[in-house]
Q: What sequence folds into this?
């Protein structure tokens, strides 16, 4: 019995972390979030592609590495820790998962092998399947999609987008069409891209296996949620580390503030809140591949519980920094905002917990 | 990640299941004198608690790694087997072996630091449930700051003469012996002036007064020592080494207070209750606010269960770094259990306030009882605030508070 990361997984995690430490410096992040004139995001993305982040989940026969979701989870954790300003969850986790689960053999051959060699980059818009806000949503008839999808992940850099309707049917659309409009959405988190996708008689290809079954989309969403949980886990850990370091240096009343119990206890609470999230996220990723009966519940709780813990940590870690924590100068807010957006994407905690209870009352 | 136990353990699980079946419905003739271990069901065999202890030791289900010569099974410690035993016993409601402070804390301490004569004299009867121990640590003025304890021990001739008072002494009324921290070196610095003494509870000069807690049960006692004389040999470690001796076992107590599997059993019980109980004719489980709160707690418990697996794995695979992971156990486990029991009360509303054998009380009033009882555990064994100091200072490397002069 062994509960934890394998050597290869730790190695993967450390490699991504090291790459980001060296390349996604705070200055680079700042440049990227201010408009990215130098296209640094692309450079960082390319660097990470060299480490294989695009082909983790793709079967070997389509040219991928065919690894467990836990590998993707540790990559996501490192991306959260270093606020990697690159597409990951949509193109390299949710899209390949959805295509694997619901694609015909031709669709798998066609799209997965392209993802593996970086010729296809997918955005994903599943928000309305989880919870439709106001008049959003797409409908499918006669081979075409109409309507709009909100908070589509990574649409701006994509070649294709996966969209879903309320029934959980998954559609592939191409970005090179006159019938699609991509509207940039500005969230507080400028390290990643979100868009509204408007379809007008947009030609769409349905993933065969999703036609009469919601299982594929649920599996893909579970995987995406575990990634968001892992991203928050990494981001929250960085915030704790920064808060603890700051509390050991900053002096007031003639002592470092970390010697005051008021500050010390905030740090201890953050550590005690986050530590079990490692096991929860890893366990959820493991169950996703190896324990189908627990997979759904674990993925839901990994997402909602880590979101809750992350929110508290983002607040406390900022407070430990005092006024400096509130400034743009320190850049702590990038992590605060990343955690804040992760919490809402693919289902806010309340929505996800409702799915969790429903899965148990069936 | 490999959560399989392997074929050897599947066999072992079957063996334990067969054993539990054999003793189905077991109960004890003398359970009123042995306050530890679950009492099982009824309708099966009856025996003395000590006989059950011996059966469990002979099978290797208890005291597995304690050497044979001291009354144990004499095998290798096996974390997975312990886990299987605990799980199967719980599932089949088979009475667990006795625990308590003698077995959980004194035995490991003696094994590590006792003299040969002490091991021979005390370990076997303790494991067999024939010698019950209480722990004489806390005093009215030495709680979180335990090392400031003042109960005095003077070596006069070949006897220790003990005077002072202990408090929060659970099970003192059942105990034959007390392992006790006593100040024997009044001139030494506070941590270096303490000795770890073993005191027979029938020695003249000991008075036990029950201390009723908020659950209205006499869960604790105060113990008064007036010129209590015991043999000079009844000391573990050397004079002034008592703090080190005691600390060898305090860590053990912290970990075992609130196992997440037990908390998950209560979550499942609550979910069951929420399907049965109705509010305005609708089952509570269908009320969005209550079901969301239930799910919040379930998420926390799942996180702690997964965390416990990670810690178990770290014990099996030395070299894994889980330092902070271990330190948080007492804090998060006791706080979560208290929160869960409190949630059940909220969900039941007025009915949740019913207690003892009131009409309409649910689950024998256990939700209220455990809600209060766990507040005791949050405070006892190092309060949550002390735990946070430990996590911050030893886990995160944050500086200690500056010392106040004279403290």
A:
């Amino acid at each position: 019995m062994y509960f934890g990361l394998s050597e290869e997984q730790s190695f993967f995690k450390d490699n991504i972390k090291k790459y980001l430490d060296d390349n996604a410096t705070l200055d680079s992040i700042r440049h990227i979030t201010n408009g990215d004139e130098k296209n640094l995001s692309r450079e960082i993305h390319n660097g990470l592609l060299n480490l294989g982040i695009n082909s983790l989940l793709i079967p070997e026969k389509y040219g991928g590495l065919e690894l467990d979701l836990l590998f993707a989870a540790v990559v996501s954790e490192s991306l959260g820790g270093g606020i990697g300003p690159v597409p990951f969850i949509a193109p390299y986790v949710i899209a390949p998962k959805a295509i694997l689960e619901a694609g015909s053999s031709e669709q798998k051959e066609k799209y997965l092998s392209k993802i593996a060699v970086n010729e296809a980059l997918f955005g994903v818009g599943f928000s309305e399947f989880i919870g439709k806000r106001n008049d959003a949503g797409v409908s499918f008839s006669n081979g075409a999609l109409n309507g709009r999808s909100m908070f589509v992940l990574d649409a701006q850099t994509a070649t294709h987008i996966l969209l879903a309707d309320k029934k959980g049917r998954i559609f592939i659309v191409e970005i090179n069409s006159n019938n699609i409009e991509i509207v940039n959405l500005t969230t507080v988190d400028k390290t990643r891209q979100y868009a509204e996708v408007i379809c007008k008689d947009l030609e769409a290809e349905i993933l065969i296996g999703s036609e009469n079954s919601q299982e594929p989309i649920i599996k893909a969403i579970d995987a995406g949620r575990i990634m968001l949980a892992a991203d928050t886990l990494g981001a929250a850990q960085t915030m704790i580390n920064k808060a603890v370091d700051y509390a050991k240096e900053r002096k007031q009343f003639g002592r470092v503030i970390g010697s005051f119990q008021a500050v010390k206890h905030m740090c201890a609470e953050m550590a005690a809140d986050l530590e079990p999230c490692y096991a929860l996220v890893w366990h959820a990723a493991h169950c996703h591949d190896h324990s189908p009966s627990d997979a759904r519940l674990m993925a839901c709780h990994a997402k909602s519980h880590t979101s809750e813990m992350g929110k508290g940590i983002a607040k406390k870690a900022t407070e430990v920094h005092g006024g400096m924590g509130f400034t743009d100068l320190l850049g702590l807010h990038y992590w605060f905002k990343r955690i804040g957006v992760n919490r809402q994407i693919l289902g806010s905690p309340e929505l996800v917990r409702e799915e969790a209870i429903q899965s148990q009352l069936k | 990640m490999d959560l399989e136990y392997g074929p050897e353990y599947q066999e072992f699980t079957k063996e334990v299941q067969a054993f539990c079946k054999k003793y189905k419905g077991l109960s004890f003739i003398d359970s009123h004198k042995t306050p530890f271990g679950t009492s099982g069901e009824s309708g099966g065999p009856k025996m003395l608690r000590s006989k059950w202890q011996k059966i469990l030791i002979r099978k290797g289900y208890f005291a597995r790694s304690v050497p044979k010569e001291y009354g144990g099974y004499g095998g290798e410690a096996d974390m997975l087997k312990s886990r299987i035993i605990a799980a199967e016993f719980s599932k089949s409601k088979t009475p667990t072996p006795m625990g308590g402070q003698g077995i959980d804390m004194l035995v490991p301490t003696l094994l590590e630091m006792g003299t040969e004569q002490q091991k021979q004299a005390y370990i076997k009867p303790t494991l067999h449930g024939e010698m019950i121990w209480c722990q004489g640590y806390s005093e009215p003025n030495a709680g979180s700051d335990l090392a400031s304890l003042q109960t005095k021990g003077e070596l006069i001739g070949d006897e220790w003469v003990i005077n002072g008072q202990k408090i929060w002494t659970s099970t003192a009324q059942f105990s034959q012996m007390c392992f006790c921290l006593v100040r024997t070196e009044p001139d030494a610095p506070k941590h270096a002036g303490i000795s770890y003494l073993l005191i027979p509870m029938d020695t003249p000069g000991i008075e036990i007064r029950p201390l009723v807690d908020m659950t209205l049960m006499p869960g604790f006692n105060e113990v008064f020592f007036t010129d209590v004389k015991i043999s000079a040999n009844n000391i573990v470690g050397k004079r002034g080494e008592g703090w080190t001796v005691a600390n060898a076992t305090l860590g053990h107590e912290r970990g075992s207070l609130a196992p997440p599997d037990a908390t998950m059993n209560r979550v499942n019980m609550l979910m069951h209750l929420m399907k049965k109980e109705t509010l305005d004719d609708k089952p509570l489980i269908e009320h969005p606010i209550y079901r969301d709160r239930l799910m919040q707690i379930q998420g926390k418990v799942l996180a702690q269960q997964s965390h416990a697996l990670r810690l178990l794995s770290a014990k099996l695979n030395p070299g894994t770094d889980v330092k902070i992971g271990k330190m948080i156990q007492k804090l998060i486990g006791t706080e979560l259990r208290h929160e869960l029991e409190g949630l059940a009360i909220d969900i039941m509303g007025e009915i949740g306030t019913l207690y003892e054998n009131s009409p309409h009380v649910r689950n024998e009033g256990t939700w209220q009882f455990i809600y209060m009882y766990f507040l005791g555990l949050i405070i006892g064994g190092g309060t949550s605030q002390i735990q946070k100091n430990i996590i911050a200072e030893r886990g995160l490397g944050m500086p200690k508070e500056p010392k106040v002069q004279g403290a």
Q: What stands out?
A: Residues 257-395 of chain B form a domain with the Butyryl-CoA Dehydrogenase, subunit A; domain 3 fold (CATH 1.20.140.10). The longest strand of chain B covers residues 220-231. Residues 288-316 of chain B form the longest helix (29 residues). The CA atoms of residues 176 and 202 of chain B lie 7 Å apart.
